[in-house]
Amino acid sequence: MAVNPPPLNGAIVHLGSLPASHDSVVVLLVSGRHLVMVRHRDRAWEFPGGHAEPGEDIEATARREAWEEAGAELAGLRAVGYYVLPNGHTTVVTCAQAAALHPLTGEHETMEVRAFDTLPSDLSFTDGLYAYLLTELGLLNGPDTPRSDPGEAPPAAGTTTL
Q1: pLDDT band at 146 (very low <50, low <70, confident <90, very high)
Q2: What is the mean pLDDT of residues 79-83?
Q3: Worst-scoring range by mean pLDDT, 28-32, 122-126, 135-139, 140-144?
Q4: What letter does residue 123 receive in the DSSP assignment?
Q5: With pLDDT > 70 as the criterion, what percentage of the chain qualifies?
Q6: Does residue 146 have a cis bond before it (omega within 30 degrees)?
């Protein structure tokens, strides 16, 4: 199902399906009841994610980006949908539990990793996409309330376990 809820900067969101090809992956990362986010050197808070390397599949990209940005090993990784920006850039949305979080070292791309009860106000991307995805996927009961067990959110129809 494709939806385009405002404002989302024109992104078209498809939940429960995967694209034929993709440019990047975002990992909606949770640890228990908390959202795990990273703070980049030049940006604010965001979920780990980034561009796929040549020949890299969704799972490999998600695991690599979670490690590089958050020092996270993933459990229960699943692809839940994707979104397409007006310029055609396609990002696959994945969800995962943090199986382990390791301290950031020089090989990590971010300055800080933090667990939040709710989405912080100082996000890198203020288009409402994170709140929309978390709510639609059942990772938030409402805009500011974490689920009782975010790692066990019911899979959307057509969800792919990686």
Answers
A1: very low
A2: 96
A3: 140-144
A4: B
A5: 80
A6: no
- Residue in this structure with the two tokens 């959110």, named with its chain if needed: 153
Q: Which amino acid is at 34?
A: H
Assign residue 25 a region: left if phi > 0, alpha if psi is -120 to 50, beta otherwise? beta
CA distance 11 to 157: 21
Check if the beta carbon of residue 63 is closer than 8 Å to that of residue 77: yes
Straight-line distance from the first to the last Cα atom of the chain, in angstroms, rounded to the nearest whole number: 21
Give the CATH number of the domain where residue 105 resides: 3.90.79.10
* Cα–Cα nearest to 142, from 118, 160, 158: 118
Q: Which structural domain range is residue 51 located in?
A: 2-161
Q: Per the structure, how many domains does the chain have?
A: 1
- Per-residue 3-state assignment (H helix, E strand, C coil) for 27-90: EEEEECCEEEEEEECCCCEECCEEECCCCCCHHHHHHHHHHHHHCEEEEEEEEEEEEECCCCCE
Look at residues 129, 69, 67, 68 and name the one whose alpha carbon lies nearest to residue 100: 67
